[in-house]
Design goal:
- By secondary structure, the chain is mainly alpha-helical.
- The chain has a domain of 36 residues.
- The protein contains 4 helices and no strands.
- The longest helix has 20 residues.
- The chain is rod-shaped and about 85 Å long.
- It starts with a helix and ends with a helix.
Length: 82
């Protein structure tokens, strides 16, 4: 291949300005990458569990699930101590 055909091949790989103009700008927090190894880099290690969808709808966040479980454990400790 000569240099001209290589340049044409490389130019065809680049998106056209018209196609770039058609793409919306995505600026949502959920699509941003966090620093570190993966987006769970700031979480402590532990077991990973699956919460059923019907239960998840009552909580909505991992923090809410953890808070509820801590209350259950505290209540169980109080009941055992009685």
């Amino acid at each position: 291949m000569n240099d001209d055909s290589m340049k044409k091949a490389n130019e065809q790989l680049e998106p056209t300005q018209a196609s770039l103009d058609e793409m919306p700008e995505i600026n949502e927090k959920r699509f941003r990458r966090l620093p570190g190894r993966g987006h769970h880099a700031n979480r402590s290690t532990g077991e990973i569990v699956i919460i059923d969808a019907d239960l998840w709808s009552h909580f909505g966040s991992a923090e809410a699930v953890n808070d509820a479980l801590r209350r259950v454990v505290d209540d169980a400790k109080k009941a055992a101590g009685s």
